[in-house]
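Notebook entry, structure prediction.
Reason for the run: the old model in the group folder had no record of what sequence produced it. Starting over properly, with the input documented here first.
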Amino acid sequence: MSARWMVRKILEAREIINQLYMPLEDKKSIIKQIYFQLSPMLPKTTWRSLMCSNAAKPKAIITMWLQCQGRLLTVDRLKKLGLSVNDSCVLCQTNLETRNYLFIECDYAKRLWRRLSQWAKVHNISSSTWEQQLQIICQHTKGKLTIAKLLKMMYAEYTHALWKERNQRIFQETFRDHTSLAREIVCISQAATFFIKQGVTLNRNIVHNFEISPASIFALAAVGKEISVLHLHLHLFFQIFFTIDSH
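New structure, fully documented this time:
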């Protein structure tokens, strides 16, 4: 990296700062102010509540993010790229596979989502179009209620499981019915939200005016599990140590 390149970059930064539309305040972070002013003012997405504090697996959240962005490589997008692929939906073998059809209009997807909604005991979460259903789900996942956390995670796992089943049918030629797929999603959701559900009914008061949140019960349970495993390892270590020492 030459000194000429560094000087040129410094001069370019000076020109950019001079183009800022608001004066910088001395009491606040200058770098932060420059960043926000140079960043484009884009509207907030309607599905941002699905991404924040989601307990689903990271790959499930990424799949859901790609779905919301419309970037999953469904058949209609592959055909636009010039690829010769089968037009029909691999899950029901009827209509053209698009994002809206695969996740909402397909009979396989409808049965799967209906089974998950019955398990979660939520109603009026289905619609005839993908945009309307996404809007309804976003409305029900706002806030810190347990049902909102559960629905947020369940939708991410549903999206990932459905997309994974679609890929396995195409590339591995393996098939699973919607009942077994729903059972897998329910097991994942139960494991992640069990302690949150139990924490709501527990007496979480520690001292006066201090209460543990239901979500923190899960973290405390994880810490307790690690301590118990460590205690077991120490017990085995000392048992082996004294056995060798006695001989």
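Summary: The first helix runs from residue 3 to 18.
The old model has been moved to the deprecated folder.
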